[in-house]
Amino acid sequence: LLLALGFIISAQVVDFFIGIGVIHFVFILEYAWLATILAVGLRRSNDFIEAALTREALQRTDQELKDSQATLATIIDSTADMIWSVDLDSYGLLSFNRSFWDYLSRHRGIAAAVGMGPGELLSSEAEEREWRGIFRRARDEGAYSIELAVPEDSQVFSLSVNQLLRGGKAFGLSLFAQDISERKRAEERIGRSLDEKEVLLREVYHRTKNNMSVIISILRLQANEIGDQRLRDAFAVSIDRILSMSLVHDKLYKTNDLSHIDLAGYIKDLANQLISSYSLPDDRPTLVLDMDIVRVTLETAINCGLIVNELVTNSLKYAFRGQRMGEISIRLKKEEEGQLSLAISDDGAGIPPGFDIKRDGHLGLRLINSLAHGKLRAQIEFATDRGFSCRLLFADEEKANA
């Protein structure tokens, strides 16, 4: 339009100046006018193009936003969990999804609608007070989650409450309720099953301990009928070994943890039991204990108990023969790099000259080696410079399973 107008005006001006004979000036003026018109036209056309592109981008962004909102609304409306929002002041409904509407319709016979308050949605004053307390807590404290039981519907919900903000100020609350009734019932079934299994396992430990007691009684009766002292001593050693295993089952029966046992407490009771059975009160050696709190499995406890049984029995029988009673020391320590150190020693006479533990050792020492290497996978060291001592180094199960 500007270009057309410019040409018309230019033609009139040219005709005028041609009429008065100023032809060169006319051409210069015409060219200048056309250049101005072209520059203005180009700038305006660029503005029009940019405006059109901006409008198109805004329309596209607006459509994408509408599509995203529609998708989000569809997702929220189709989820099985209840989602709704309420006004912060009146607690009236601002919005809700299909699951919320279905729940109220099915369980309460209520057709939910925007603007309905707690009094219209809830069936009792007590329930209304409970929900108003939930709303007040979210208004005062912010977001939080609770488990909410609905006894009349036999359901349990995991409820999350959050504040809705506009311009940094809360105007409402959003609520998300997930039905966890079946999960809670499954947890209760598992809990009852575990309780039953724990009772059964305790009964197994108790009966095992009782059966071992019967075996010990039978062996003692049999030993009393044997005249050969060497055989009677062999029976006594076997009885002590069975007692060490019986003590483990007794401790597991009495503890709260049926899979692990306090190794230090077990060794202490075992050592005191051996000392009481092998010596009179006036002739008993002093028991020195230095033990960390360590929890191990049943198998490890039995293997350690059998080793302690052999070593303490050997000290009681041979270390202090012909001299006053000294000390028996037991040390259980947590070492670096996930290792446990168990050392049993005495300050007695030691082993006879020329005695080779590996070559001349009797059944007890062979049993110690077998248990240490085969069961515990332990490193074992013997020392005879001051009395007799044995040290085992094996894996700490608590560190290995951590």
Describe it for me?
By secondary structure, the protein is an alpha+beta fold. 59% of the residues lie in helices and 20% in strands. The protein has helices at 2-19, 23-78, 98-108, 118-121, 125-141, 181-224, 229-254, 263-278, 298-319, 357-360, 363-375, 397-401, and strands spanning 82-87, 93-96, 144-150, 155-166, 169-179, 260-262, 286-291, 295-297, 327-335, 339-346, 379-383, 388-395. The strands form three sheets. The chain has a five-stranded antiparallel beta sheet, with helices on both faces. Strand 11 (379-383) and strand 12 (388-395) form a beta hairpin. Helix 8 packs parallel to helix 9. The model has no long low-confidence stretch (mean pLDDT 81).
SSE topology sketch:
Blueprint lengths: L1 H18 L3 H56 L3 E6 L5 E4 L1 H11 L9 H4 L3 H17 L2 E7 L4 E12 L2 E11 L1 H44 L4 H26 L5 E3 H16 L7 E6 L3 E3 H22 L7 E9 L3 E8 L10 H4 L2 H13 L3 E5 L4 E8 L1 H5 L1
Parallel strand pairs: 7-9
Antiparallel strand pairs: 1-2, 1-5, 3-4, 4-5, 6-8, 9-10, 10-12, 11-12
Helix pairs in contact: 1-2, 6-7, 7-8, 7-9, 8-9, 9-11
- Strand runs, count: 12
First-to-last CA distance: 85 Å
Biggest sheet record: 5 strands, antiparallel
Q: Give the helix/strand class.
A: alpha+beta
Name the overall outline.
elongated
The amount of helix comes to 55-70%
Number of helices: 12
Strand order of the largest sheet: 2-1-5-4-3
Runs in which pLDDT lies below 50 for 5 or more consecutive residues are none
Whole-number radius of gyration?
Answer: 46 Å
What string gives the helices and strands in order? HHEEHHHEEEHHEHEEHEEHHEEH
Percentage beta strand: 15-25%
The pLDDT mean sits at 81
